[in-house]
Design brief:
By secondary structure, the chain is of the alpha+beta class. The chain has a domain at about 15-100: Orthogonal Bundle (Arc Repressor Mutant, subunit A), CATH 1.10.10. It contains 6 helices and 4 strands. It has helices spanning about 1-10, 20-30, 35-45, 50-60, 80-90, 95-105, and strands at about 65, 80, 110-115, 120-125. The strands form 2 sheets. A two-stranded antiparallel ribbon has the order 1-2. The N and C termini lie far apart (about 60 Å). Mean pLDDT is about 80; it is low at about 1-10, about 105-110 and about 125-129.
Length: about 130
């Protein structure tokens, strides 16, 4: 009985902003392992200021969703934690909506498709093309 209550407390879903949801989806999708390079990529790809991306990335770190290098852990790659993968699973049904909410910022849209092996991938859709 006590184990069940403890398990439910651990699995409690954390509330994430739309921007934080985007970052979780992108961290899972991209192979960028440096937080700095990831911030540059997100800023360029979605037109979001670097300071805003850093802010949201640090919020995710404080919530225990991601980990990345800092003074105490130099060289640690940017990655989702166990809690982050739980959040990613919770976002599975909203993946397309979250990506579409940000896709119009650079003039490139994305369509989410599923491959034969069940993996999600994104296809760029350019205006007028």
């Amino acid at each position: 009985m006590a184990q069940t209550i403890y398990s439910r407390a651990i699995a409690k879903e954390v509330s994430l902003s739309r921007r934080e949801q985007l970052l979780v989806l992108e961290i899972d999708h991209d192979t960028i392992d440096s937080a700095s390079a990831f911030v540059d990529y997100i800023s360029d790809e979605y037109g979001i200021s670097k300071s805003s991306v850093w802010y949201n990335l640090n919020c995710l770190k404080e919530k225990g969703i991601v980990s990345f290098a800092d003074k105490q852990h130099p060289g640690e790659p940017l990655m989702l934690s166990r809690k982050g993968f739980e959040q990613l699973a919770a976002l599975a049904g909203r993946r397309t909506a979250v990506l579409e909410a940000f896709s119009g910022r650079t003039g490139v849209g994305y369509a989410t498709e599923v491959s034969q092996n069940g993996m999600f991938y994104r296809v760029g859709v350019y205006p007028g093309g």
